[in-house]
Give the backbone structure.
Amino acid sequence: MGMTARFLLVAGTALLAGPMVAQEIDYTDENGIVLDRNELWLTRIQYDSMGGPRQAYYFYDGRWWERWETDFPQAEQNFAKRLNELTSVVASPVPLQRRLTDPHLGDSPLIFMSDVGYMELSKLETDALRTYLANGGFLWVDDFWGDAEWASLERAMSEVLPGKRWITLPIEHPIFHTVFDIEEMPQIPARDYARWGRGTTEPSFEHRSPTGSMKTPSIRAYTDDDGRLMVIATHNTDIADGWERESYGEWYFENFSTKSYRVGINVIVYALSH
């Protein structure tokens, strides 16, 4: 997986160390992108979703979006920039887009999924994700809200990791304190729903029914038999929108983007060092 070649320490909050260099040969992927193995490639997973409009896809900002591409690629581009500015990690400014069955998936020590409330995985994808996690990979799932969307992910993970049960990480867990001390899991609403004095929970009509309670954000996780985090899910919050929308007004940046970057940096550091 090459994880040890990408350890990072954050300037200002930890001892700053130069990036460790992996003596590996670069290669060009099927899209003609030259992959430098000395860089961290933020990798978005492309998946299929069930249903039609407002389920598998939705109309926003003048075009139709598939669920998997929510916030992509601007969220990853902005996050990579901040990683390079604030840490010693060398993150590529160009994010990758991968299917779980991609033969080069293992070159990414961390993969990211968004908006998974209607996700459907094939048997090949399920088997590929199980293999990726068993080989030391780390999956982060973000931006899904309410009971039905959680149940959808839970069903998928029961096939990927049969017999495993999720846990809610307490605020004392090291992932909340690896770099920044996060005393409360932040709820980040999509920028369009962030309104001064109106709370931070997104409207239920934008999410899969039945939504149940959407007021409490959390990090839920699946671990291996030794307790290593294999999968984390930032539920009832939209961390990546805080990255994507950082330039969409000072109020949103100060109240939400700063918190999103704190969570993101903690997750990256924790994932690459465990």
